[in-house]
Design a protein that fits this description.
Blueprint (H helix, E strand, L loop, with lengths): L2 H31 L10 H31 L6 H27 L8 H47 L1
Length: 163
């Protein structure tokens, strides 16, 4: 991975992480201050809490990607230490899907006349879970690469002994 690629990815991560922290702070301020009254059309307090939690799942994934990029730059990504970050990303994606299903459940009563919206939102939740499955497959590929790396190191050690 080139230096320019790493710097560009880190710049994007910093901008997005900063933006999400700002949005979380605004949502938290709206929750604490209670300065906009609910008119009953939407349950704003639960939606704000869910938004804060959903943004938190994205932040966890971004921090883990940062750590994995660091490992790539150091050449240590093919190690068992990388699994905890990949597992955290999978967990964050599953949590995001659960948060999305909560939003769908909160929105469903308002969609009685048009249940298609709720079905579409449920489909989006399933798509988010699909992303978690894709990352799980990538984790399995990482596990194979780590196993092959360990095997290659053992073979190199045996070859060094012979020579």
């Amino acid at each position: 991975m080139g230096k320019l690629t790493v710097r560009a990815l880190r710049a994007v991560l910093v901008v997005v992480l900063t933006g999400t922290v700002f949005v979380q702070a605004l949502m938290l301020w709206a929750l604490i201050s209670g300065n906009d009254p609910e008119d009953g059309s939407l349950p704003l307090i639960p939606l704000r809490v869910i938004t804060i939690l959903g943004i938190g799942t994205a932040q966890v994934a971004m921090v883990c990607v940062w750590r994995l990029v660091t490992m790539v730059r150091r050449g240590t990504v093919f190690s068992h230490a990388a699994f905890r970050y990949v597992d955290a990303i999978i967990g964050a994606i599953v949590a995001a899907a659960l948060v999305w299903f909560a939003v769908t459940a909160l929105n469903a009563p308002g969609q009685r006349d048009d249940p298609g919206v709720t079905v579409i939102m449920g489909g989006v939740g399933l798509a988010i879970l699909g992303v978690a499955l894709i990352v799980l497959v990538l984790r399995m590929l990482l596990a194979q690469a780590v196993a092959r790396d360990v095997e290659a190191a053992e073979m190199q050690a045996e070859l060094d002994e012979v020579i």
